[in-house]
Structure formats: C-alpha cells, structure tokens
Design goal:
Layout lengths: L1 E6 L11 H4 L4 H15 L2 E6 L3 H11 L5 E5 L8 H10 L3 E5 L21 E4 L2 H18 L1
Parallel strand pairs: 1-2, 1-3, 3-4, 4-5
Helix pairs in contact: 2-5, 3-4
This protein binds ligand CA2.
Length: 145
C-alpha cells in the first residue's frame, strides 16, 4: 500500500504563525509523525506540499497508477478549487480530506468544500491526529477492496 499526503497553500507556515488556530508544531513535525506512523504500519508514504494550485493538480494526476490512495488538506483551495476537485475525480483514487481546524465553526466561507464530493471522508478539527485517522480510514477502505 502506497499513499500520498498533499498539503496545500500556507501549510508550510505551520508552527511559525497563528499558533492559536494551527498549533505550535511545524510541517516537518507533521511529516515526521506521518512517516513514523506509516513505517509502523508498513505503508509506503510520500508527503507533498505546494502553494500552487496547478502543482497540486499535477501531483494528483501523477499519482494515478503510482499510489493507492490520497490524504489531502487542500487548505484555502478547499473553498475555491474546481480544478483540484476535477483532478481527484479524474484519477478516481480513494481520497480523504483533512482539515486541522474545525472549519464548520470558523468563517462562513470555510463551510463549503469543493473537494468533499471526490473524497470518501472528511476529517475536521483534529489537528495532526486527523491525518493519522485519515491514513487509518484509507487502510481500512483499501483492505475491503
Ligand atoms: O484547517 C485547515 O486545515 C485548513 O485547511 C487550513 C487552511 C484554511 O484556508 C482552511 O480553511 C482550513 C489555511 C492553511 C494556512 O496555514 C497556516 C499555518 C500557519 C500559519 C498561517 C497559515
């Protein structure tokens, strides 16, 4: 089993700004936690972060035939990107959407996600633990196939 973790724009600033919302830990801490968890589970994993919509679309397209599933936090593109939605639908890999914060209890515009309809589940407000839950969900989903 090989999974791809995608983090969208500004998530490279984790731990450096807005700790009240996103916590004190960095993207490197998150990627280390994911790598350790996947090593224990004998899952192959690659982590990718980009601030660019097209780069995320390219990465999703390139995942076809290379990965078994995707965990994606599209960050602000969650609320704007039909292109990321279309890419996820096009590759048709099982995907889980993750948000560090509880987007349902922030500004109104964060309540709508374009990508949700291409995902098997959405996990919100569980900070880093949400990514580990997403990996568990993907593992169970792929085991059933
Ligand atoms: O809660 C999440 O994970 C979000 O996807 C984060 C996005 C936001 O636009 C979504 O509505 C919810 C923002 C990511 C920005 O990350 C930062 C991290 C540290 C400092 C500043 C921004």
């Amino acid at each position: 089993m090989k999974i791809l973790i995608i983090n969208g724009p500004n998530l490279n600033l984790l731990g450096l700004r807005e700790p009240g919302i996103y916590g004190n830990n960095t993207l490197a801490d998150l990627e280390k936690l994911i790598a350790e968890t996947c090593r224990e589970k004998q899952i192959q994993v690659e982590c990718f972060q980009s601030n660019h919509e097209g780069a995320i679309v390219d990465k999703i397209q390139a995942a076809y035939g290379q990965f078994d599933g995707i965990v994606i936090n599209p960050a602000a593109y969650t609320h704007t990107s039909v292109a990321i939605l279309d890419a996820l639908k096009a590759v048709s890999l099982p995907a889980v959407e993750v948000h560090l914060s509880d987007v349902d209890h922030r500004e109104e515009f964060r309540r709508h996600s374009f990508v949700s309809s291409a995902c098997i589940a959405t996990i919100k407000g569980k900070h880093f633990a949400g990514y580990l839950e997403a990996i568990d969900l993907l593992e169970k989903h792929l085991a059933q196939k």
